Recover the amino acids of this structure.
């Protein structure tokens, strides 16, 4: 199994600022994804982080708001740009090895004031 | 669009009893299903998975049943323990997709002493 570390684990940010969340996997993985989980809700896929190329975004999510990087097979970042209180959420990194199970990090809990 | 949904948002069971959490899915093209457990403040934790060519799979104290005819998935937990209290999500992966998960809305399981 893969161990996924995210940081920061939580942060409180001011409106209009940006925050970058880092995701590190302890082994090489084929797929990496970013999810958002709003309070009391299920998980919604933001995008697939593609190594060495632009991420693939789901409907309702755009690169300008959520730029994503994946420079190698074990690391990815998600930036939440120009934050507003509506961006307060848990952001989760996930990774998959081959066609096996999908592992999740502990999440980054973001509060925007 | 296609979605995965749960029958009940909350479930309370007595410690030692068996728990059954149900999930309906609508996309017959889904070929892989996973149950996740999410404890408060943590990321989702893989419990058990099942592929569409199976109708039952057993793990330690857990069993997943898949009924493709009625597009229904269930998670059975035997001898429920206080540590089983969490939110449980079912998730599906569409055949041929880039392996992104689509999550259901979640069921809060509470184990009563």
């Amino acid at each position: 199994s893969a161990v996924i570390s995210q940081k920061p684990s939580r942060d409180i940010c001011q409106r209009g600022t940006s925050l970058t969340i880092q995701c590190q996997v302890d082994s090489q993985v084929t797929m990496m994804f970013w999810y958002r989980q709003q309070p009391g809700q299920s998980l919604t896929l933001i995008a697939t982080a593609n190594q060495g190329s632009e991420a693939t975004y789901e409907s309702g999510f755009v690169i300008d708001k959520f730029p994503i990087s994946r420079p190698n097979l074990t690391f990815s970042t998600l930036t939440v740009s120009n934050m507003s209180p509506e961006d307060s959420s848990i952001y989760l990194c996930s990774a998959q090895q081959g066609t096996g199970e999908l592992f999740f990090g502990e999440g980054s809990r973001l509060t925007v004031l | 669009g296609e979605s995965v949904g749960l029958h009940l948002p909350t479930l309370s069971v007595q410690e030692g009893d068996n728990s059954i959490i149900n999930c309906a899915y609508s996309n017959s093209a889904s070929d892989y299903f996973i149950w996740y457990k999410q404890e408060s403040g943590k990321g989702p934790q893989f419990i058990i998975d099942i592929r569409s060519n199976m109708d039952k799979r057993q793990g330690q104290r857990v069993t997943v049943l898949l009924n493709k005819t009625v597009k229904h998935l269930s998670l059975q937990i035997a001898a429920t323990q206080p540590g089983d209290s969490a939110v449980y999500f079912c998730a599906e992966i569409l055949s041929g997709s880039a392996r992104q998960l689509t999550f259901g809305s979640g069921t809060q399981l509470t184990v009563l002493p």
User: Anything to note?
Assistant: The two ends of chain A are 37 Å apart (CA to CA).
